[in-house]
Structure formats: structure tokens, C-alpha cells
Amino acid sequence: MPAIFEPPVKIPWYLKGAIWFAEQTTGRMMLPARLLAWYPKAALASGLMEALVAHTDGFLDERILKLVRVTASFAAACPFCVDMNSFEYQRVGISDFELSVLQNQAEVESVATFTKREKLAVGYARLVSASPLAFPSAFFDELKANFSEREIVILAATAAQVNYWARLIQALGIPPAGFSDECKR
Predict the structure, then answer these.
(1) How far apart are CA 118 and CA 43, in angstroms?
(2) Residues 101 and 86: beta-carbon distance below 8 Å
(3) Which residues contact 83 (CB under 8 A, 6 or more apart)?
(4) What are 31-60's pLDDT values in tens digits?
(5) Residues spanned by CATH 1.20.1290.10 within the chain?
(6) Does residue 57 sit in helix, strand or coil?
């Protein structure tokens, strides 16, 4: 199913370079970036947010941030986000079983391969992605006991960023870009 409308024929010059870079980096046509060209301010703001997202930071390694992104993608039920964020999940040490847990096919607490911090990060991503938002004080106490303030901000921002993209992408009817198709080859 295609998006609800086509990208503009004429894309401002200052967005063309960013779109080209995104497409070269991902190896895919980035329909979200192209559709955002209809409103360049939104395209610039979204691109800046994407460029500055944390991929690693101190004790928050690539695996824990991937767990947060994938969890938020499944929680938001965004096919494009799931496709993009779960791409190469095995490269950061996420197993097929762990991926199924992120899809709510088993309890996170039952997974021996998740560290305590990973379990909390997955739980936090689910809370950030839920509607209505509700954060039990006992959960915050445990989160603060296991993560620094900086790490909590990065976890929250990462999950919120996925939720931003999920809502925008679904509101525009953007289908998956085919990242997971490459894994099936």
C-alpha cells in the first residue's frame, strides 16, 4: 500500500542533500524524508532530531538502545518502524527469542539473557510508548537505582523519538521500506 500522497516533484535544494545522504546511508528510498519536503520546516526539524539521536553513550551500548528502539516500534505498532529498527538486530547480539519477547510473546522478566538494566530499559520503552502515559513511582525508583540521570534522559528521548516517527509515518500511510526483506535473502 503506497503512502496517502506522493512526494513533491520539486524538493528544495537544501533538503535534497540530506535526503540523498539518508538514502545512501540506508540503501533505501526514504519516503518519510521525501514526504516531509512538503513542509521543509518539519523536514529540517525531523532530520536534525534523527541526526542527533544517541546510538551509543557511555554505559548505554548499541544493544540496549536497539532494544529500546525495537520495543517502542512494536509498542507503537508501526510496521515501518519495526522494519527499520529491527534491521540487523542480531548484529548487536539480540537473539530471535529476545526479539519475540520484545513483541510481547513472552514476559521480559523470564528472559535470562537480558540484564537487569536491559529489562528496565525495555519496560521503560513500553511505558513511554503506552497510552495513556503512566509511570509508577516504584518503577522510577528502580530506574534511578540502575541508570544515571543522563542515561534515563537518553532512554526516554530514544523511545519518544521512535514514537514521534511512528505516529508521523502512520499518519502519512508510509509502508515499510524493506529492511527486513534483506534479512530473508
Answers:
(1) 32
(2) no
(3) 176, 177, 178, 179, 180
(4) 999 999 999 999 999 999 988 887 777 778
(5) 62-171
(6) strand
Biggest CA–CA distance in the chain, Å, is: 52
Residue-wise pLDDT tens digits, 70-129: 999 999 999 999 999 999 999 999 999 999 999 988 889 889 999 999 999 999 999 999
Site of grid cell 521480559: 108
Burial call 160-170: b when 16+ CB within 10 Å, e when fewer: ebbbebbebbe
> Are the beta carbons of 19 and 48 closer than 8 angstroms?
no
Q: Supply the CATH classification number for the domain 62-171.
A: 1.20.1290.10
